[in-house]
């Protein structure tokens, strides 16, 4: 997992949509690794509407229409989408 590989300094905020990330096991893991959890309130879909909309557009308009050969090509294409087309 990323925490083990990167060993981050300071507190890291983990944003999630609740689901399995609200479990006791996950919360214990986060506390043990100095990760702060950030979740919207149950049933409040508007808390994260802007981010949800962006990622939905990214997936629908870009990612699902392509097959990437490398991570670097994937990153470059997503960067292009965000910086050139989306903004």
Automatic annotation (TrEMBL):
Example GO molecular function term? nucleic acid binding
Domain of life, source organism: Bacteria
InterPro entries the UniProt entry points to: Integrase_cat-core, RNaseH-like_sf, RNaseH_sf, Transposase_IS3/IS150/IS904
Q: Boundaries of each Integrase catalytic domain copy?
A: 52-87
SUPFAM superfamilies noted in UniProt: Ribonuclease H-like (SSF53098)
A Pfam family this protein belongs to?
A: rve_2
Q: Which GO terms describe its biological process?
A: DNA integration
Q: Which PANTHER family match?
A: TRANSPOSASE INSF FOR INSERTION SEQUENCE IS3B-RELATED (PTHR46889), TRANSPOSASE INSO FOR INSERTION SEQUENCE ELEMENT IS911B-RELATED (PTHR46889:SF4)
Name by which UniProt lists this protein? Putative transposase
Origin species:
Kosakonia arachidis
Q: What is the lineage of its organism?
A: Bacteria, Pseudomonadati, Pseudomonadota, Gammaproteobacteria, Enterobacterales
């Amino acid at each position: 997992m990323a925490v083990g590989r990167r060993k981050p300094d300071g507190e890291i905020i983990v944003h999630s949509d609740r689901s399995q990330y609200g479990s006791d096991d996950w919360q214990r893991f986060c506390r043990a690794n100095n990760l702060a959890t950030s979740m919207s309130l149950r049933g409040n879909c508007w808390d994260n509407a802007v981010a949800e909309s962006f990622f939905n557009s990214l997936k629908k308009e870009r990612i699902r229409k392509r097959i990437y050969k490398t991570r670097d090509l994937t990153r470059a294409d997503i960067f292009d989408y965000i910086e050139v087309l989306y903004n």
